[in-house]
Task: structure prediction
Amino acid sequence: MKTKSSTSAVEAFAELFLSFLASMPGLAHGSVTREQLREIMLRTDGELILAGGIYDITQRSLGAGVYSVSTKLRGRGVES
Result:
């Protein structure tokens, strides 16, 4: 069973990681646990508005409950 302190630690990490992603849209990436990824996705619904663009949060499983997380500009590669 999770304690209140472990839950608040995950929430605090999610805030810091989102700030990190926002600091370099499209360039920043990092590794997080499944629990941290869940909190990030719950807070953002899978997208961020940064520098006048909408960025999707992308994740890739690295195995053992660890995920690589980055942002990708929505609409990139689509001809208009």
Notes: The mean pLDDT is 90. The longest helix spans residues 4-23.
